[in-house]
């Protein structure tokens, strides 16, 4: 039987290499779904994940006194996203992000009700303006020459120490340093609140402003929305809008180093166009 691991769920912080290097169709249609309790919202995907009912029960029990003005179901929807199954590759976030990054939009339809709930929750959270970090093992610099869209939910952290812990201090690594305007701080709703996770929403568009090598084997990339808002009154400060709206670009930069010293980071700016 699958269960939530007690260890840090760092896999979702390191999956930037899974992002497709092309523009996909916008993420649309889910906003028309009704806003349902979590137990109802996940019914269409129940056959895609083992022990989903157990994970939902865990999320609901941990979300009885939600922060940030969210309902219990909204907070639990975020909590459920962060939970790592015993095997990371069968976790909800792994499955959902894989589908969000697919060229085909049809497989996303069973997820619409859950997306409606979790994105409604995330849009209610204040947008964070801060420098955040994301990392991956391997060299991705060749994939980031100009503009890029991250189609999945992107897990980031404000702490260089956390990224150092996740990507290690040796071997080829790529770091993204992002001065975001639209991050969502989900610590109060996460199964792993010690990680202080900052979540970037699907369809976030970046412009690469720089990439460089500060030392051996560590590359740094300081990185228009393609996601409909979940409800009509969602404000533009989330940096997420319809595909027909004026795109919001976020800048990203890249570097390389042997270790992961604090001096390796250079902050780039993110300015709406």
TrEMBL record:
GO terms for cellular component: extracellular region. GO terms for molecular function: NAD+ poly-ADP-ribosyltransferase activity; NAD+-protein-arginine ADP-ribosyltransferase activity; nucleotidyltransferase activity; toxin activity. Signal peptide: none annotated. Keywords: Glycosyltransferase, NAD, NADP, Nucleotidyltransferase, Secreted, Toxin, Transferase, Virulence. It catalyses: L-arginyl-[protein] + NAD(+) = N(omega)-(ADP-D-ribosyl)-L-arginyl-[protein] + nicotinamide + H(+). It is an enzyme of class 2 (transferase). It is found in: Secreted. Its EC number is 2.4.2.31. InterPro entries: ADP-ribosyltransferase_ARG, ART. The keyword NADP applies. Belongs to the Arg-specific ADP-ribosyltransferase family. This is NAD(P)(+)--arginine ADP-ribosyltransferase. It comes from Rotaria sordida. The lineage of its organism: Eukaryota, Metazoa, Spiralia, Gnathifera, Rotifera.
